[in-house]
Specification:
The complex is a heterodimer.
Chain A lengths: L1 E5 L2 E3 L7 E2 L4 E2 L6 E3 L1 H17 L4 E7 L5 H10 L3 E5 L6 H15 L3 E5 L10 H9 L2 E12 L2 E8 L2 E7 L3 E5 L11 H9 L2 E4 L8 E7 L8 E2 L6 H9 L5
Parallel strand pairs in A: 1-6, 1-8, 6-7, 7-13, 8-12, 9-12
Antiparallel strand pairs in A: 2-5, 3-4, 9-10, 10-11
Chain B lengths: L3 E5 L2 E2 L2 E2 L1 H17 L3 E6 L16 E5 L9 H14 L2 E7 L2 H14 L2 E6 L9 E7 L4 E7 L4 E5 L14 E5 L9 E7 L11 E5 L10 H10 L2 E4 L1 H5 L20 E5 L5 H7 L4 E6 L12 E4 L2 H15 L1
Parallel strand pairs in B: 1-4, 1-6, 4-5, 5-11, 6-10, 7-10, 13-14, 13-15, 15-16, 16-17
Antiparallel strand pairs in B: 2-3, 8-9
Helix pairs in contact in B: 2-3, 4-7
The chains are: A alpha/beta, B alpha/beta.
Chain lengths: ~250, ~325
């Protein structure tokens, strides 16, 4: 089985969110970058688990971004994976990014494409489905389990108010979330090995850009908390009904 | 011929989903901006009253009722939805940003060569092209996305737009398009019966480590049941298996934006806030006055949950 794991670079979950250039760019000063948690903890680690069970599994990583994303790819390679591909572009349009990944999938003949359920910065949750459409494969979103036995893929996914189990065959594209795998941290051997793993930089294929980012806004700050004395909590209920009008 | 707007409308057990009604009201509002019509698309057999969707402002309801549609197959669904939209001259497609739409809408966008905005939170602005606001950075900011294509796909966040009834009845048009053969077989569905799904809930009561153990969840459940709210929990609680994983809200769990979020015994770590900070009204009950959650709250009580909660429950009961 040949697996392609899609990796994004995102600001750390605790990073301060601010903007520069008249609110058109994310302020990167002092920002710690991480592998998008869903890509790392669930998509990549599940791929590694599959390889641990079956040594013939090949894992390639892909990221679509400029050279600043390379430390994150090395970090991902330190966890596992055989080699990585970086598509060299700054374009952020979901269709453009999905088209780059799809071109690599077609060229490389991958059986399984894994993404995280969404990035924690763009929160689009759309790349996996777009890649599946562009490569004409089945797509299952928000997968919490993936098993592959005797040519059959068994997937659990979250649905509204529950869970659904489905069977299909490869090739397949999945977006992964909690439940897929247990998060792990890279060990020294992995970190050393990652330095010499191949990281191929390729130029983007030519496709249209469908959307562009105009600017950013921070939500207005909260007016401040209205504290209610602990001995009169019934006042809270009154305020929720009469002032906030939510109950 | 004028293009129109098509809203994919989900249904379950003979009812339209509330989030889909929000999407309809949103689509109807965009149609009004453009001076065109909005229509609904319903897929699969249902006892839900199709003409009644007219009271939310749609002119036609396209009912695609071909036999044996595998609604869990994103490929099948995207082929069907894209076909209807092309046949019926719809250039703008609206979905509610539901769990199932996350699998379908991006595929439809690719099929139609449409620019997509996922998780829209407001009506488009047309002063400088077609621009739509969406949440980014897990609710910590909003971005404005300009769609450069003539066809557009938007998924609307839950609770981001109010359902509006305008009155009227819609013409129902049955469509028969053969669905492509599906290669996905659903072998099981486990639904948690009797609970309000968290992603659809307007009110949520949530508990954290401050409740000390799963045996104390009666306080959360009783208040939730009185308010008609869903129950949720913090990551620490689901990691400790006090509560099931599907109740976990926060950065790595579910992101929600109900009208009312009541957090009991949750300190409000930044990762938790990322999942709930879009809630309209936030109430925090915590015995630690330094809990960071108070900074993000609208109402707060600094006090012991075990003393405060029974009084709140009684006060809600007294409302009748």
């Amino acid at each position: 089985m040949k697996i392609l794991v899609c990796i994004s670079r995102t600001p750390d979950t605790t990073a301060k969110i601010a903007f520069t250039d008249n609110n058109t760019k994310f302020a990167t000063d002092g920002v710690q970058w991480i592998i998008n948690p869903y890509d790392e903890w669930y998509a990549l680690v599940r791929a590694i688990e599959l390889k641990e069970k079956d040594a013939s599994v090949i894992i390639h990583l892909i990221t679509v971004g400029n050279s600043e994303t390379e430390p994150i790819i090395r970090k991902a390679l330190a966890l596992g994976g055989d080699e990585a591909i970086r598509v060299n572009t700054d374009n952020q349009d979901p269709f453009y990014i999905a088209s780059q990944i799809a071109a690599v999938v077609k060229e490389g003949g991958y059986d399984l494409v894994l993404t995280g359920k969404e990035t924690i910065d763009y929160n689009g949750s759309s790349i996996g489905a777009m890649v599946a459409e562009l490569t004409d494969t089945n797509y299952i979103s928000l997968a919490t389990k993936f098993e592959f036995e005797h040519g059959k893929a068994i997937i659990c996914r979250e649905i509204e108010g529950g869970e659904e189990v489905a069977e299909t065959t490869l090739p397949l594209t999945l977006s992964c979330q909690k439940g897929m795998a247990e998060a792990r941290i890279p060990n020294m051997r992995g970190i050393m090995a990652a330095r010499t793993k191949p990281l191929k930089v390729i130029d983007p294929v030519t496709v249209d850009t469908y959307t562009e980012t105009v600017g950013f806004l921070l939500p207005p700050p909260k007016a401040g908390v209205k504290l209610i004395p602990a001995d009169t909590p019934e006042l809270l209920v009154k305020l929720l009904r009469e002032e906030a009008k939510v109950i | 011929m004028n293009m129109s707007i098509l809203i994919y409308t989900e249904h379950q057990e003979g009812k339209f989903k509330k989030n889909s009604l929000e999407a309809i009201s949103y689509g109807v509002a965009i149609a009004a901006q453009k001076g065109i019509d909005a229509h609904a698309l319903v897929i699969g057999e249902t006892t839900a009253p199709l003409p009644e969707l007219g009271k939310y402002g749609v002119k036609k309801v396209y009912h695609l009722n071909t036999a044996n549609i595998n609604i869990s197959d994103t490929k099948t669904m995207s082929v069907l939805i894209a076909s209807v939209s092309t046949q019926q001259n719809c250039d703008t497609l609206i979905f509610s940003n539901t769990l199932s739409a996350k699998g379908i809408a991006p595929r439809v966008a690719v099929r139609l060569k449409a620019g997509m905005v996922s998780g829209a939170v407001d009506l488009p602005e047309n002063n400088n092209g077609f621009c739509v606001k969406k949440n980014v950075f897990s609710g910590k900011a909003v971005t404005e996305i300009k769609v450069l294509t003539s066809k557009i796909v938007i998924t609307l966040n839950a609770n981001a737009f109010e359902v509006k009834e305008t009155g009227g009845s819609a013409e129902v048009i049955t469509i028969d398009i053969s669905a492509p053969a599906s290669t996905i077989t659903v072998t099981g569905i486990n639904k948690i019966a009797g609970e309000i799904p968290l992603s659809e809930a307007e009110k949520v009561v949530s508990g954290g480590r401050g409740l000390k153990g799963p045996e104390n969840w009666g306080l959360i459940e009783e208040l939730a049941s009185l308010l008609g709210a869903a129950t949720a929990c913090s990551r620490a609680v689901s990691d400790a298996h006090w509560r099931p994983h599907h109740e976990h809200v926060g950065q790595t769990g579910l992101a929600i934006s109900p009208n009312l979020y009541i957090a009991v015994g949750i300190s409000g770590a930044i990762q938790h806030l990322a999942g709930v900070n879009r809630s309209k009204t936030i109430v925090v009950i915590n015995k630690d006055p330094e809990a960071p959650f108070f900074k993000a709250a609208d109402y707060g009580i600094v006090g012991d949950a075990f003393e405060v909660m029974p009084k709140i429950i009684q006060a809600v009961k007294d409302l009748g």
